[in-house]
Amino acid sequence: MEQSLGFAHFLTHADGVARFILALLLLASVGSWYLIVTKGYQAVRQRFRSESFLRAFWEAPNLEAVARRIRETGTTDPFSHLLHHGFTAIEQHNRCKDAAGTGGSLIDFGAPDDMLTRALKRAIEEDKASLEFGQTFLATVASAAPFVGLFGTVWGIYHALIAIGVSGQGTLDKVAGPVGEALIMTGLGLAVAIPAAIAYNAFARASRNTLSRLNSFGYDVFNFLSTGIKSSPMHTDARATSERVIALARAQGAAEPAAHPGLALR
C-alpha cells in the first residue's frame, strides 16, 4: 500500500524535539518579519521626515524659527532630535549663568563648548541605539537558523533510519521518503535565515549612512551654536557674525602698531 508522505506526515510523526525545533524556527521567523516590516516602515518614514527637517533647517531665517518648528512638530527624526539636544544644552548653560553661585548637577559642569559637545554626543548615541534596535536579533537569526534546521534534519534522519531498520525494509523507495521529510528542517532553517540576513545588511547600511550624515550635521550644529556661523548658504546670522569678527580684527590690527612701535616703522 502506498504511503502518503509530505510535510503533514512529517508533523504527524515528529517527536517532541522536532516539534520544539519547528516552534523555535517559527518564533524566529515571526520575530524577523515583525522587525523587517516595522523597521522598514520606520526607516522610510524617518527618511522623508529627515529630508523635510533638513530642508526647513537650512532655509530658516534664524534659529528661533527652527526652535519654533521643533516645538510645534516635536523631534520626529534623528536630526531634529540632535538639534533639540543642542538647544537644551544652550538653555541649560544660560540658566546656570543666571543662577551662578547656586551650584548645579554634574551635567552642568564644564565650559559651554563642553556642555554642547556632551549633549550632541548623547543625542547621537541615543539615535544610534534607536537605529540599531533589533539588528542583533536579525543577525542572530541569520547565523543560527541554518544550524537549528540542520540539527532538526540530523535528528529526523536518525529516527527515520531507526524506523527503517526496525521494519527491515531498506530499499530506496522506503528510505527516500522519511529522509526527504527530515530534510524539510534544513529548508525551513534557510527560509528563516535568508530574509533575516538580507534585512540585517540593509538596515545596517541604512544606519551607517544615517549616522554618517548625523555626525556631519552635528559638526555643523556645534559650529553654529558655539560661534553663530552656519556652514551653509544661510545668511542673516552668518553675515552679522562675520561683520562683527571683521570689525574686531580691524580693531586689534589698529592696536598692534601702537603696542609695538618697532613694527610700525618697518
SSE inventory with pairings:
Layout: H1 7-13, H2 16-59, H3 63-73, H4 78-98, H5 112-131, H6 135-167, H7 172-182, H8 184-227, H9 236-259, H10 261-264
Helix pairs in contact: 2-6, 2-8, 4-5, 4-8, 5-8, 6-7, 6-8
Describe what you observe in this structure.
With 266 residues, the protein is mainly α. The protein is built from ten helices and no strands. It has two domains: 7-229, no CATH class; 235-266. The relative contact order is 0.12. The longest helix is centred in the first third of the chain and has 44 residues, at 16-59.
**Record field, number of beta strands:** 0
Number of helices: 10
Strand content: under 5%
Shape: rod-shaped
Give the tags.
single chain, 266 residues, mainly alpha, 10 helices, disordered C terminus
